[in-house]
Amino acid sequence: MTEARIFYEKDASLDTLSGKTIVFIGYGNQGRAQALNIRDTFQIASLQNPPRTLVANPPDSYFKRALEDGFEATTDWAHAASVADVLFLLVPDQVQPRLFNETLKPTLKKGCTIVIASGYNVFYKYLAVSDTDDIVMVAPRMIGAGVRSRFESKEGFPCFVSVEQNSTGKAWSVTLALAAAIGALKSGAIESSAREETLMDLFTEQALWPSIIATFQQAYSTLKDLGCSDEALTHELWLSKEPAEVFEKCAEDGFVKQLVHHSTVSQYGQLKGSMEFDTTALRRNFSIIAEDRILGGEFAAEFGGLDKEDENGVQKRLSELYALASETELAKGEKRVRARMHMSPV
């Protein structure tokens, strides 16, 4: 059995970042939350020589927000990279390789620490990182708003950390200092890797959640054929928010133990049904997705090829997929219910 190391605040020293220049490439949901958390941490820590924080972003609403938040900001990517001791790479995965390889890498200092929040481009070797630089992962397992709110409430949040390339010999100390500064060590950060993070992240997106979506669609159609109304079905299956409450209880009480909050009939049905469910085809499909699509690189090649054929290829394909999804019986039923019950449209 593989047992991961878990790191806490006692394992890190903020002094490691003293006098450093920390550059955020991208000021979106994660960039803003982590930059604010780092600034607040060092205001409280009162180091004699706290790190400097610089935000680099295109001249858009996010750039304006960075200035409003009081950060030093620039639209000059290359200049930002040239002063970075620590470079947070927080732009979308599909944008990172070209931006990093063509614009950021040529001006980077020797020994820079490149911080990723997703293992994708490192695992697939899309980033041409110099062998004199460090590559580390600090990957919060929640959206930026949660990273910020749970820092402010002092709760902490789940996070994966790893060192992918340790050219300087100091990568782990920097990684843990950064994780502590964004608030990720309060509840413990889990040692992972770019491979593991990529595998799990893409697997949930391409296997787990698609199987759940498909199951809901088939359940909807089956029950609709047996006479259930759109109004009753949508509320029974998701509009009541009961599934969200169940998943919350899974996190609080345990994946199986949360069943005690259900009726005896429900507990019996869920336990017996899940134990007797024939998962042979499901497991076979999961293995193909994990081994061939993800680890074998089929998905990365497919996804990367979309924008190579057309600079808006990803968005065009997404629009096509949304159009197909809107034609399912479930989607049409929900649209009717929302209109009839004066709910927000989809």
Q: Approximately how much beta-strand content do the residues carry?
A: 5-15%
Q: Looking across the biggest beta sheet, what order are the strands in?
A: 1-9-8-7-6-5-2-3-4
End-to-end span in angstroms?
A: 45 Å
Overall shape: globular
The description of the largest β-sheet is:
9 strands, mixed
Mean pLDDT: 96
Overview of the molecule:
- This protein has 346 residues and is an alpha/beta fold.
- Helices cover 53% and strands 12% of the residues.
- It has 15 helices and nine strands.
- It has a nine-stranded mixed beta sheet, with helices on both faces.
- The longest helix is centred in the middle third of the chain and has 32 residues, at 194-225.
- It is globular.
Report a brief summary of the structure.
With 346 residues, the chain is an alpha/beta fold. It contains 15 helices and nine strands. α7 links the parallel β8 (159-165) and β9.
List keywords for this structure.
single chain, 346 residues, alpha/beta, 9-stranded mixed β-sheet, 15 helices, 9 strands, 12% strand
